[in-house]
């Protein structure tokens, strides 16, 4: 329970924790940032780590000189890209291991073929948009690996998504993170960064499910 309480407090007050870490450990903060981003994007069992809020706060701290923007951005980019590549590789490796028996309860050949076709057709935009959705960004590269999305295609969109995510949110934090109104409402902004993309993802999945059922009902 203490660990859970600490994680919740860290996510909601990442600015205070990060500032305290910089004050105490200095340049080691960059190692911490690399580990957090890599683990969140690269380990499928760690989807709850702060991503969007962390990027925003890092940008804000760069804006007041507590961190170096030109060090933080490349470092976070590398962590985000390698994290997704790791997650994709895990999915690609484990998929055949778990689904090696076509008649097992764990494997559905038709579902696998549909997932593979989906990721070959829409996987690019899925990988890019998933970067901005907590939880989804952790599972999307893993599923892409399981579905055997081609590595070259995955890598291209992985890099594009990482650039838009890291540079976009960090730069927003750099220019707007230290405005008085933003500082006064930072906790609400963090909640928004967590909840709004998640709700949009849930709504999208619900709508896609309804459309799939409607198509199945109309099929002869």
From TrEMBL:
Family designation: Belongs to the DedA family.
Keyword Transmembrane: yes
Protein name as it appears in the record: VTT domain-containing protein
Membrane-spanning parts: 27-49, 56-82, 122-144, 156-177, 189-206
GO CC terms of this entry: plasma membrane
Cellular compartments annotated: Cell membrane
Keywords: Cell membrane, Membrane, Transmembrane, Transmembrane helix
Domain VTT, chain residue ranges per copy: 49-174
Species whose genome carries this gene: Comamonas serinivorans
Topology in membrane: Multi-pass membrane protein
UniProt cross-references to InterPro entries, sorted A to Z: DedA, DedA-like, VTT_dom
Broad class of where this protein is predominantly found: membrane
């Amino acid at each position: 329970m203490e660990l859970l309480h600490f994680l919740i407090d860290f996510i909601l007050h990442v600015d205070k924790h990060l500032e305290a870490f910089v004050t105490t450990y200095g340049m080691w903060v960059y190692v911490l940032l690399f580990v957090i981003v890599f683990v969140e994007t690269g380990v499928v069992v760690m989807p709850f780590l702060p991503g969007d809020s962390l990027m925003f706060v890092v940008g804000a701290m760069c804006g007041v000189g507590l961190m170096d923007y030109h060090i933080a951005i490349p470092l976070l980019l590398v962590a985000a890209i390698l994290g997704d590549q790791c997650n994709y590789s895990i999915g690609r490796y484990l998929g055949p291991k778990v689904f090696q028996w076509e008649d097992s309860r764990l494997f559905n050949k038709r579902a696998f073929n549909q997932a593979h076709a989906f990721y070959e057709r829409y996987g690019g935009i899925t990988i890019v948009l998933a970067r901005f959705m907590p939880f989804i960004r952790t599972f999307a590269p893993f599923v892409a690996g399981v579905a055997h999305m081609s590595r070259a295609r995955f890598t291209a969109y992985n890099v594009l998504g990482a650039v838009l995510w890291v540079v976009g949110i960090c730069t927003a934090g750099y220019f707007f993170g230290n405005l008085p109104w933003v500082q006064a409402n930072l906790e609400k902004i963090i909640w928004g960064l967590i909840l709004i993309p998640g709700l949009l993802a849930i709504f999208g999945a619900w709508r896609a499910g309804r459309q799939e059922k409607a198509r199945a009902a109309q099929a002869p």
